[in-house]
Amino acid sequence: MKKNIAILGGCFASNRDNEILANIVFDEKHFIKADDNALKTCDLCSESSKIIAEQLKQLRFSYNLFQNIENYKKKNE
Which residues of 62-72 are buried (b: 16+ CB within 10 A; e: fewer)? Predict the structure, then answer.
Protein backbone atom coordinates (compact mmCIF):
# COMPACT_ATOMS: atom_id res chain seq x y z
CA MET A 1 0.00 0.00 0.00
CA LYS A 2 2.84 2.42 0.83
CA LYS A 3 4.30 1.98 -2.65
CA ASN A 4 0.92 2.87 -4.18
CA ILE A 5 0.65 5.92 -1.93
CA ALA A 6 4.13 7.01 -2.95
CA ILE A 7 3.24 6.68 -6.63
CA LEU A 8 -0.07 8.50 -6.21
CA GLY A 9 1.58 11.10 -3.98
CA GLY A 10 3.88 11.98 -6.86
CA CYS A 11 0.82 12.88 -8.93
CA PHE A 12 0.14 15.85 -6.66
CA ALA A 13 3.27 17.94 -7.15
CA SER A 14 2.24 21.62 -7.31
CA ASN A 15 0.64 23.83 -4.67
CA ARG A 16 -2.57 23.83 -6.70
CA ASP A 17 -2.53 20.04 -6.72
CA ASN A 18 -2.05 20.00 -2.95
CA GLU A 19 -5.05 22.33 -2.57
CA ILE A 20 -7.14 20.00 -4.72
CA LEU A 21 -6.01 17.04 -2.62
CA ALA A 22 -6.94 18.86 0.60
CA ASN A 23 -10.36 19.71 -0.86
CA ILE A 24 -10.94 16.08 -1.83
CA VAL A 25 -10.14 14.93 1.71
CA PHE A 26 -12.38 17.63 3.19
CA ASP A 27 -15.28 16.82 0.88
CA GLU A 28 -15.01 13.05 1.34
CA LYS A 29 -15.08 13.54 5.11
CA HIS A 30 -18.21 15.70 4.77
CA PHE A 31 -19.96 13.14 2.55
CA ILE A 32 -19.09 10.32 4.96
CA LYS A 33 -20.69 12.23 7.82
CA ALA A 34 -23.79 12.95 5.73
CA ASP A 35 -24.24 9.32 4.65
CA ASP A 36 -23.54 8.02 8.14
CA ASN A 37 -26.10 10.46 9.54
CA ALA A 38 -28.68 9.41 6.95
CA LEU A 39 -28.25 5.74 7.88
CA LYS A 40 -28.56 6.49 11.59
CA THR A 41 -31.37 9.03 11.62
CA CYS A 42 -33.52 8.57 8.51
CA ASP A 43 -36.31 6.06 8.07
CA LEU A 44 -35.07 4.51 4.83
CA CYS A 45 -36.37 1.53 2.93
CA SER A 46 -34.01 -1.45 2.84
CA GLU A 47 -32.96 -0.79 -0.77
CA SER A 48 -32.02 2.82 0.00
CA SER A 49 -30.14 1.72 3.11
CA LYS A 50 -28.16 -0.81 1.05
CA ILE A 51 -27.27 1.79 -1.58
CA ILE A 52 -26.19 4.37 0.99
CA ALA A 53 -24.24 1.76 2.98
CA GLU A 54 -22.35 0.71 -0.17
CA GLN A 55 -21.69 4.35 -1.06
CA LEU A 56 -20.45 4.96 2.49
CA LYS A 57 -18.09 1.98 2.20
CA GLN A 58 -16.66 3.38 -1.05
CA LEU A 59 -16.38 6.88 0.40
CA ARG A 60 -14.46 5.60 3.41
CA PHE A 61 -12.06 3.73 1.15
CA SER A 62 -11.55 6.80 -1.03
CA TYR A 63 -11.20 9.09 2.00
CA ASN A 64 -8.55 6.84 3.55
CA LEU A 65 -6.65 6.64 0.28
CA PHE A 66 -6.55 10.39 -0.28
CA GLN A 67 -5.87 11.13 3.39
CA ASN A 68 -2.89 8.77 3.26
CA ILE A 69 -1.63 10.53 0.15
CA GLU A 70 -2.04 13.89 1.87
CA ASN A 71 -0.17 12.64 4.96
CA TYR A 72 2.57 11.17 2.78
CA LYS A 73 2.97 14.48 0.94
CA LYS A 74 3.17 16.45 4.20
CA LYS A 75 5.72 14.03 5.62
CA ASN A 76 7.94 14.34 2.55
CA GLU A 77 7.82 18.13 2.09
Answer: ebebbebbbeb
pTM for the full predicted model: 0.72
Domain spans, the chain: 2-75
Mapping DSSP to helix (H, G, I), strand (E, B) and coil, where does residue 14 land? coil
- pLDDT tens per residue across all 77 residues of the chain: 334 444 454 555 567 777 888 888 999 999 999 999 999 999 999 999 999 999 999 999 999 999 998 888 777 76
- The beta-carbon contacts of 34-38 under 8 Å, at least 24 apart in sequence, are 35/59
